[in-house]
Amino acid sequence: MRGRPRRGHVAGFGPEDGVLEEPAPSSITGLRFCVNARSGGSAELDFTDLRPRALAIEMAQAFRRLSEVGGPLGARSTILAYARTVRIFFRYMAVEAPTVSSSGQIVAQHIDGFEAWLETEGKSRVHAFTQLSKVVVVFREIDANNPNRISEDLRGRLRYTSARPFKRPKPRDAYSPYVAKQLRDAARADVTAILRRLDGCLPEHLVAHRDPVICQRAETLRDAICCQGFLPRNNKLTSALYRALYSRGLPTSSLLEDVYSRFYLTVHDLPPLLTLLSLDTGLEIECVKALRTDCLSSASAGTVTLHYTKRRAHGLSQKTMRVRDGGATTPGGLIRAIVTMTERARQFHPSDALFVFYHACGFRDVVRHPEATLRHWIARHSIVDDHGQPLKLLLSRLRKTHKALWYLKTNGHMARFAVGHTTEIAARHYADIPSLRPLHEATIADGLEDAIGLRPQQNPHLDTEHGVPAAPLQTGGNAATTGAQDVWLASCSGFYDSPVSKPGAPCAHPFWGCLECRNAVFSERKLPAILGFLDFILEQRSLLGAQDWAAKFGHAHDRITRQILPAFSDELIASARATLKTHPPMTYLPPEAAQ
């Protein structure tokens, strides 16, 4: 192309623009190599035990290209997930197609068979689809790099991931406010303790004995740490302190951890920091792990702009949000406190990552998934779930928890709740979750109770202007409150607007069909009739066969006993029982027969 492209000018191309460069051969010839992830960290891949070797080398070459700039494998965790799936695919091929030696011999039947084999291995539909998609991506990369390497049959199969219907995964639920309060209180207490702990002094148990040898060797070790950052375990200063403690019968199991925790953050400090930041900001946990030291800007009026990276957002990965700013209990203040707490570690491990911590005789700036430390943190604070059992903390659920708490605070007001999302996305992904369902059901119940408790000021059957009877269709709004359109088991809110009849025509559904009608309102007034019908159902059980009774009355019995009666208190049910004995309800008649 000639010149720099400018708007409004025709682009010109020369003959050299149509010449394609020869692809450079891959530098991977072995099966053991290291991949540096673009998002931080490195992944050590070892495929030397995979057979056939030719196919393993082809997939290893595809791995390297997929993890380069522009490829989909940008995170270390994603690279390792692909590596695990490749191993599973080789295990499948060793059983189902042991004679295949290269990608050119693989056909569509092998890909379909791998999907079926995953399901026979007990993988769920969502899990099987996820693993199948990884294998398809790898073979697509092999085909893109060398179109002559795979067969036409496999190339046609790679156009889609699966021919079976896709099943959406179960939505991730939020933790309850009770669990969220435990997590927040524990995290804030630990943050306060961490701020007091990082003072650069020796642990109390080393100086409490006032042994001159121990104190002298500990001081020497502390001075060396201040100059060098950390010392290896076999360093003579470290060994000397170990010998002094051991010879006096003092514990040495956590000596280095105790000493270095006075200077740097440790891996055990990550759970409270990650939990508190995610709960208070609502950031995805991978965004919290990837925060940088310069992520705050434009502080004003108690708030600050937080810059973060969301890799899942494709072309819009760089995002911002306004968060509270103040003390260490606010997101802005906590991030500044973390920068201060990691300042000494950055002198020996330069990095712009927010979390720089000491772990296993070295500094780390990449936060992985600390499962063991999460369990230890939960056990140390005795955090339990809603059933009183030890909580299994999933950091990925903290964002949903933040959203659920905000939903409760805004009373479900979607215009205020949908921050950073459209109303549809906020409702579907963050409001329609299992933990909020009881709130929605209680709101509906309260609305129905409020509607039933209303008493109209005027006769709904009279036209207020002329004093003449109104049309039946005009009385539907208050019919459920006055009892004018009561049917046998319920108060009907629209007898002439039935879902089983034409608009304007009376309902044609007889007897206990009202139990499933959307117009039915079950109030205290109808309890005697419902209890009487329940007694009738139980009497019919002795007269009919088990299958006949279940087919005729089973669903109605479950509807009454499991859904309707539990909504009323025991006192109301007892009062209705007494009313049923003294004043049995009238035989069922439709409203139009009583007029």
Could you characterize what this model shows?
With 595 residues, the protein is mainly alpha-helical. The longest helix has 21 residues, at 76-96. It is extended. Helix 2 (76-96) packs across helix 4 (125-145), helix 21 (527-543) runs antiparallel to helix 22 (546-564) and helix 21 packs across helix 23 (570-582). The strands form 4 sheets. A 3-stranded antiparallel sheet has the order 3-4-5. A two-stranded antiparallel sheet has the order 1-2. It has 4 domains: 32-157, no CATH class; 199-260, no CATH class; 267-393; 472-594, no CATH class. Helix content is 47%, strand content 6%. 26% of the residues are buried. The chain has helices at 53-66, 76-96, 108-120, 125-145, 152-157, 177-197, 204-207, 212-228, 236-247, 255-260, 270-281, 285-289, 331-341, 343-346, 371-381, 398-409, 414-417, 423-431, 437-453, 476-482, 527-543, 546-564, 570-582, 591-594; strands spanning 32-36, 42-46, 296-300, 303-309, 318-324, 357-358, 363-364, 491-492, 520-521. The protein is built from 24 helices and 9 strands.
Oligomer: single chain
Which structural class best describes the helix and strand composition?
Answer: mainly alpha
Give the low-pLDDT segments. Answer: 23-28, 454-478, 589-595
Largest sheet: 3 strands, antiparallel
Strand order of the largest sheet: 3-4-5
Whole-number average pLDDT?
79
Rg, Cα atoms, Å: 35 Å
CA(first)-CA(last) distance: 88 Å
Shape: extended
Q: Tell me the strand percentage band.
A: 5-15%
- Work out the helix count: 24
Total strands: the figure is 9
Number of separate structural domains: 4
User: What percentage of residues falls in helices of 4 or more residues?
Assistant: 40-55%
